[in-house]
Amino acid sequence: MIDDVNKALMTSRGSARDLSPYTVNVSYAGGGANWFGPLQPMRPVAPPEVAGRAFDYPTGYNLNTTPRPYEAVTFEMLRSLADNCDLLRVVIERKKDQICRLPWIIRARHDGPAHRRPKPSALPAAQRERIRALEAFFREPDYLTPFSTWMRSLLEDLLVIDAPSLYCQRDSLGRLIRLQVTDGSTIKRIIDPHGRTPEPRLWDDGADASSQRYVIQGNVAFPAAYQQLLHGLPAANLTVRDLVYRPMNLRPGHVFGFSPTEQILRTVNIAIRRAQYQCEYYDSGNQPESLFSLPASWTPDQVQRFQDYWDNLYSGNLAMRRRMKFLAADNGKNSYIPIKEPALTNEMDAWLARVVCLAFSYPVSALAQQVNHATAQQAERTAEEEGVEPTKQWFSDLANDVIRSETGFDDVEFAWVEETEVDQKRQAEILTSFVDSGVLTIDEARERIGEEPSTDPMAKVLAVKTATGRVPITSQRNSSAST
Predict the structure, then answer these.
(1) Where in the chain are the domains?
(2) What confidence tens digit (pLDDT) does each residue in 261-270 have?
(3) Closest by CA position to 77, among listed 265, 340, 278
């Protein structure tokens, strides 16, 4: 039977002779792909060089003179949201405080454990000189403002529009002398045919540079990668050597970053409108929201005149609104009707605060009441770590890229000083336990806490603490081997 099927497979194509029941089934299996099947794809109409485009960008993308073209949310809208929502602005400023209070250093690059990092005094003289020069540069990156102030300005564009931009000012020899924060809302990215930032390339001396599309540095040509738009017009073309443009949250299919402010666009809009509603209570409200029935004999004109009189008397006048009001009773009886003040805050405000804090990884305990104090403290520490660490890593990468590209050396780096709170008593107990059990020598324990090695020869020997004193592990091994 199997031989018959194999024979049918070999002769069924193009054959009109009768087939056995087994071969009929096999022929259906071979041609079933064409029965409502996927069929063959259409032949590509674009040249092979199109393969690998970053996204399907609009034709003539670089001709647009809008700083944020083809995006539903503009830079102006994002800045307006951040400036008009008090809740959002408070969280943004606190995020700046979290980053700018952290100490930083320029140090020798070392991939091993931190306690094995070479001390500055042991570094070569040339490396120490580079560290001193870079420390002096980053203390005032734009020559006028200290690092913390300069960093706050850069973080503003990172948190609001995710378009942090640094203009590289150079001397006559092309050396970087200043990193100046530039308004990212004036920068438009230029894309190459693949939808990516144009890359530098080796320059051909015979090529035509009259088009001014390239900036020649030695034998490298830097194409225009960014365009600064001022007053709605293209003011200057900038290369990757002129501008450090570093969004933190890029998405496929988008040229510009996705800031935390844009991520909670609707929530911030609700918060602004709610604040306006609450403000109306003090600006234009006449009484708590209510309905009051007037005599049935009044005409619509009389009702309107009384409404205008009441509004003019109490709108925005908080002192008058806080007093008792006397009205003529329609039924001829005297009555006292207390007016209940409206609740201007409720669970909605706490929910808005939670969403905003979550977007920025900021502890919500500062803005919303927590049920459990211990849980609130743990959540605060977690939120700060989750929010601060990515931003620290983002700027470290940015600063180290600048150091490598400008100095040509990869042996020094920008780093944030770790602020982990160490319980000194607990640390001493752990190191003492390691030394007494023979896991570490005394010198290794001293190295962990940053102390110089001891002059005692026994400090370099692994030993176990016993009732009679410290016994070297090597002596025990030798004695057991001799017996």
Answers:
(1) 2-34, 61-266, 424-482
(2) 999 999 999 9
(3) 265
